[in-house]
Design brief:
Blueprint: E1 5-11, E2 14-20, H1 26-33, E3 52-55, E4 58-61, E5 74-76, H2 89-96, H3 106-119, H4 125-131, H5 143-164
Parallel strand pairs: 1-5
Antiparallel strand pairs: 1-2, 3-4, 3-5
């Protein structure tokens, strides 16, 4: 029998404490223990990006991270971005530009895009594509996702310009 470990982490702004087995993946902890099912599990090898979450401000594959590794961390999942009643600006761009089809990859895409928007200039569509290269969408040709990101980058840059004026 594996020894359990006590963990304490902040998930979407709420402090959570749990006793977990050392082999429990962060993705499974979020989905099964916290009922945050927006974090999808696809390949379970870190290739598809469906399980992407923000941990301490950086995107990570929650299928490659044990819950015990997140002890003391701040985790943000797609559930924190907005809901049906009030979409986040990025979710709104995805909606406006039809940047989803089946929706399975969408949570991971949104988390990855959030991280990219925070950290990189994304001056060209090629830079956006490179940033998204770790996320697989089996339904689209990525064109609408890139368009949504381009619109989000433009909005971000306009807001930064207005704030500095």
């Amino acid at each position: 029998m594996s020894a359990r470990h006590e963990i304490k982490l902040t998930v979407n702004g709420a402090v959570r404490e749990a006793s977990v087995e050392p082999r429990l993946l962060l993705a499974d902890f979020l989905r099964e223990n916290l009922n945050l099912t927006g974090t999808h599990v696809g390949c379970e090898h870190g290739v598809c990006g469906a399980c992407t979450v923000l941990m301490d401000g950086g995107s990570v594959r929650s299928c490659l991270c044990f819950a015990v590794q997140a002890d003391g961390a701040e985790i943000e999942t797609v559930e924190s971005f907005g809901g049906m009643d009030e979409l986040s600006p990025l979710q709104q761009k995805f909606r406006e530009h039809h940047a989803l089809q089946c929706g399975f990859c969408t949570p991971g895409m949104l988390v990855t895009c959030t991280d990219l928007l925070e950290k990189y200039p994304l001056a060209t569509d090629d830079e956006i594509r490179e940033g998204l290269s770790g996320n697989i969408c089996r339904c689209t040709g990525y064109e609408n996702i890139v368009r949504a990101m381009r619109a989000a980058v433009t909005e971000r840059d306009n807001e930064r310009h207005e704030a500095s004026s």
